[in-house]
Known about the structure:
Shape: elongated
Number of strands: 0
Helix content: over 70%
Strand content: under 5%
Radius of gyration: 27 Å
Amino acid sequence: MENTTIQELEAKVRDYQEVLKTFGDLLEQENTALENFDIEAVSSLYDRKAKMVAAYRTMTAYFIKNQEALAALEAAKREALRASAEKLDSLIKKNETLLKTRMETSQNVMDTIINIAKMTNNSNATSYGAQGRYSPLDNNKNALAVNRTL
Length: 150
């Protein structure tokens, strides 16, 4: 390999290491916020996370396209890069689990509230049957609106 190509590759590796570290730090902050149910902290990290995901994808795509150049790196540098990538991967998996759990919990709470509102609405509602007479038993089709925004 030429010196410029090796220098470019080493610069890309340094950049990638920085992206991995920064993204990992961000995920650790978000995971802590998710564990503490700190929704404001999670939402405040969103813009930074979106930018880090874009940078991470760009750098990963570069190394996927240039695997032969990556193989030419010193073994110690490749191993350090692999270790950083594995650490980030475990943080991503933990983040995914925490996000999924929090979203399912929120959905279950909303479903419970909706079901309670429907039962209350049905028990207090009046309706008229097909014959035009009062029919408290036929009140399952009453309208109910719920704002699902959290």
